[in-house]
Amino acid sequence: MPLENVPVFEVTDLRKSFRDLEVLKGISTTVQNRETVSVIGPSGGGKSTFLRCLNLLEEATSGSIRFEGKEVTGPLSVKEKALYRQRIGMVFQNYNVFPHLTVLDNITLAPTLEKKIPKEQAVQRAYELLERIGLDDKAKEYPTRLSGGQKQRLAIIRALAMDPDVLLYDEPTSALDPEMVKEVLTLIQELTEQGMTTIIVTHEMQFARAISDRVLFIDNGILVEEGVPEQIFGDPVQERTKEFLAKML
Amino acid sequence: MLNAILRIWNKYGFVYLNGLLGTLRLSAVTVFFATILGTVLAVFKLSKSRTANVLVDAYVEVIRGTPVLLQIYFFWLLLPKAIGFELSDTQSIIIAMVVNASAYVCEIIRAEIQAVDIGQREAAFSLGLTPVHTFFRITLPQAVKNILPALGNEFINMIKQTSLASVFFVQELTTAYRTVQSTTFLSIPSLMISGMIYLVVTFTLTRFLGLFERRLRSNAP
Lengths: 249, 221
Known about the structure:
heterodimer; A: 4-stranded antiparallel β-sheet; B: flat
């Protein structure tokens, strides 16, 4: 369980290079428990890399990430890494549901395999989650039968089934047809309102403004500006933030 | 022609049937061991060890870059010298064919495993699956669906390749042709019988594999 008074993430001078290309040039920020943080900025600016570093899909070149007070950027064993990631849910742009598993098995695989939750219990929980998104009648089907919006909502509840302390979303609606964006955003918003700590990389500016406690603007590997949505969207300080928002809104 | 074929078949049918038996035996042994060796090679190739990678690469390059007949000669000449004891022609040939086919099996398995979308692995990792669980529960099941049909084709190749054993007069279908031809001097009809038997074998196997493949696809889309 997350501790109320310890930040979920404390990121200090996070740097990441791919060969000669420095993608993150020293990012520092703190994410509090139950906070909703949106990350905005131009494509290729390092937003996704930042998110991927947080759950160790990318290994930071230098800097520190503390999760609930514990350093996670040091050398972790395979087991430690897996245990750490169990506490951090991640939702991808391309859904990445498992096509060879049924909708139900997509949800129960990780809890039964890694948390040793009894099968019946995991199935029951999966059905509760499926009911919540209105897909319980699709439990025995394969994800190929689902629409993009359904796949993404499945991916979200699949992450929830692990009872993570925080959810990371990497452009969760960018690959969706416009008419399916809303159902996904609605679910994300509901979860934030219930207190799920959330970091979301998104191009949906209206949405970011509506749900966020704080907005980070990342460009060219630098955290250019951060603040409450009213300030970032209403009265940005930095020139680059203004330029970017002028193009987006 | 048809007459000649029937006459030969009536008189020398048993030679062909013995040949068929030899071909099936050679094929089965080759397929079995080549699949095992090829899988082991693929595991090394997919491992993080630089040395293992380079070695498997070299192995695959050499095997795929030289003719199989040459490899058979090579093993036939080399093996009896390299190891202390006698090897029959059949054994040398089987070893050569296993080595040859394993390189192709290795490439099929490696390619199909690497063809599985990287996002699948990342999603599994992000759920907290260990690398071992990710491989066996996510990557491999998705790769297998493409590996099996490709392996099926490779098996058919292996069966046809066993005809090279006739170079050393090992009992199999092409050798059966040579035996009958040298007795009857009816080259084309005796060759056609061998050809038809090969065709029956590969056709049956292709059908069987096709059925199997459809089964795989319907199980999970």
